[in-house]
Design a protein that fits this description.
By secondary structure, the chain is of the alpha+beta class. The protein folds into two domains: 1-177, no CATH class; 224-264 and 280-393, no CATH class. Helix content is 39%, strand content 11%. The protein has helices spanning 3-10, 101-116, 122-129, 149-159, 165-177, 204-209, 218-229, 235-250, 254-262, 280-307, 316-324, 329-340, 370-375, and strands spanning 39-40, 62-71, 74-84, 134-135, 140-141, 143-145, 179-181, 186-188, 194-196, 201-202, 270-271, 275-276. The strands form five sheets. A three-stranded antiparallel beta sheet has the order 1-2-3, with helices on one face. A three-stranded antiparallel beta sheet has the order 10-11-12. A two-stranded antiparallel ribbon has the order 4-5. 39% of the residues are buried.
Length: 393
């Protein structure tokens, strides 16, 4: 969309205050910010998998989704499909997914990035899309979205000619909402070394020159994550799939770090938070941080899967604690950690030295594999929870 068209498009906002001054409607438990709805009607709270009132109203009892054609990492909208929603009287009510306050802030950042771009071209959106880096003395790192920057900004650019302004803002919110600290994404490589997301790790030379990061394996993991989420049938399933692929392929359990260290693993790299990984204390700080952030994302993903009626992919113990805590991941994981200290409950803790989660093929979907998971013929997409060093992280 060229600048003239964008000005006309933005003209729909002239009667509103600046975005930063205008709270979005909805009650999410943290204030007046709310924007989600995939299935909405006269009573959105009964149909919407997220705990929000809709920003974009759609006729009652209708389900709307965007249909994509994908070409590698490229995609375009081909049509909008609206189908009659069927309900079963025996169907149990679904506990909604409650994003955190941080996620709400990241979502608002996405809307601001869209509003501040000179046009709705991919390059202009990209310039506004990255959040400010943080530096603890070991190089910058920051909050990065889970759906690859080039994919997210391309998607918004393509959508700009097909969606209303409200719908486009909604998509910007969703695409920006799920972000993780780049320093929490570190993995072991097949060659026996470690790699990380840009910003996580640096070599002595990179530190000295203050240029570059060690990203071995990042390109293929990032690309495969996009290809995997594109197999999912709707927006919300894609968001959950992106988290699952991030946990499985781009993050490492603390127990695996500790096991490798005991077996003699050494590196001269520096972690953005832990520091010089040749020092035992720094390596432990890095492994705890990465492991804790991994578990936090796992509980969040479990909550989202439950809101999509995909409980079979969630370990039963996580389902139980989420049920008791209104499907709010923070509350559930805190209660589980508290109960771990009660020996009478005999709760099991995942102490394996590698991920036990099932692998979904790039052409497989979460819903399409439910039957096999239920029968026990394939493992769940989320493995059992692990004890966190700092559950309040």
């Amino acid at each position: 969309m060229d600048n003239q068209k964008k000005r006309k498009f933005d003209g729909q906002l002239t009667s509103q205050k600046k975005l930063r001054e205008t709270p979005l409607s909805g009650n999410n438990g943290f204030g007046s910010i709310g924007i989600f709805s995939q299935e909405v009607g006269s009573n959105p709270s009964d149909q919407n998998p997220f705990q929000f009132k809709p920003l974009v109203p759609i006729s009652s009892n209708l389900r709307q989704t965007t249909i994509f054609e994908s070409f590698g990492d490229e995609l375009k909208i081909t049509k909008r499909k609206t189908v009659k929603k069927t309900e079963s009287k025996s169907e149990k009510p679904v506990q909604k997914y409650q994003p955190s306050l941080e996620q709400m802030e990241y979502g608002r950042f996405g809307i601001e990035a869209l509003s501040n771009s000179k046009s709705y071209g991919k390059s202009d959106i990209t310039k506004q899309w990255r959040m400010k880096a943080i530096d603890h003395g070991y190089g910058g790192h920051g909050m990065d979205e889970l759906q690859r920057t080039s994919y997210a900004t391309k998607q918004l650019s393509v959508m700009s000619s097909n969606l209303s302004l409200k719908e486009l803002r909604w998509q910007a919110f969703l695409l920006s909402m799920d972000r993780v600290d780049t320093s929490s994404l570190v993995w072991f490589t097949p060659e026996g070394g470690i790699g990380g997301h840009p910003g996580a790790l640096r070599s002595p030379k990179q530190l000295k020159e203050k240029k570059g990061t060690t990203v071995t394996g990042h390109g293929s993991r990032d690309s495969n994550r996009v290809k995997a989420l594109l197999s999912e049938p709707d927006d919300f399933s894609r968001f959950a799939r992106a988290k699952i692929e991030t946990i499985r392929t781009m993050s490492t359990p603390r127990e695996e770090f500790e096991d490798k260290r005991k077996k003699g693993f050494k590196t001269d790299l520096t972690h953005a938070i832990g520091g010089d990984l040749s020092k035992s204390g720094s390596f432990q700080e890095m492994s705890s941080y990465v492991g804790d952030k991994r578990e936090l994302l796992k509980w969040d993903t479990a909550s989202q899967l439950r809101s999509l009626k995909l409980d079979e992919h969630v370990p039963p113990v996580m389902v139980d604690y989420l049920k008791k805590n209104d499907n709010i991941p923070r509350l559930a994981l805190l209660e589980w950690h508290k109960d771990l200290d009660d020996s009478s409950l005999k709760l099991e803790v995942n102490k394996t030295t590698s991920s036990q989660a099932g692998v979904l093929g790039q052409n497989e979907t979460l819903s399409g594999t439910l039957s096999e998971v239920s029968k026990g013929s394939r493992p769940r997409s989320l493995s059992n929870p692990r004890r966190m060093n700092n559950p309040k992280i």
